[in-house]
Design a protein that fits this description.
Rossmann fold; 2 domains; alpha/beta; disordered N terminus
Length: 264
Amino acid sequence: MREAFLATDGRPGNVVFDLDGVVFLGAEVISGAGPTLEAIAATGTKVLFATNNATKTVAHIASRIESMTGFAPAADAVVTSATALVAALGVADDPVLMVGEAGLAETLETAGRTITEDPNTALTVVIGLDRAITYDKLERASTAVRRGARFIATNTDVTFPTPDGPVPGAGSIVAAVAAASGSDPEVAGKPHQAMVRHISERLGPGDTWMVGDRPETDLALARAAGWTAVLALSGITGAAAEVPPHLTPDITVESIADLARWFD
């Protein structure tokens, strides 16, 4: 692990935070998250949030950050795997057959996308976390993919963290559709290039730190983008020894609160 002054040339211009497991854990805020976010923003560093959670809209997530931490994100500071997915869609990708929740549907519709339940007319199949998943939804999605529809996932996180431990994530549903259709999806969320581009459009000048709890998404995103990788041990990863060597973080902290000392 390198110290901060070796990881970057001075204070970063941008810090991108994952949410689940970093800023909050389920319905519980991580201790010290609000004051830390305020302290970092007060230095002039741009604070952004990037989550693979596609079940809520950007507006809902921004409101949740403010209500839980007291920190109000800037208007363009929150991105999700759903908004990265929408940015990756083209004019020839309608209509869309979606497996997901209301936030994903609203994000698609706000972007002018038409949602269909007909696998015979769908030109794109979009998969996100759906806690009301049914066999019928899996069947329609896999049928559309076998018929040639573009197959794109919000993310492939097989689990997501909760105070009671990991629970199945969008990747578990994506895997079922991939197995049934015989096709692998494109992926919009972390650590893939669609998300790298989506975040990069919002960055200010200076170095960028990516703070996350999941090596295969957050730290891998930092590596793909050439950013400083910061591991928070408050979520899915409980010890630095659990991280694969090729994703070794530049900085490891117990929680978001430990970052404040680098922005005094």
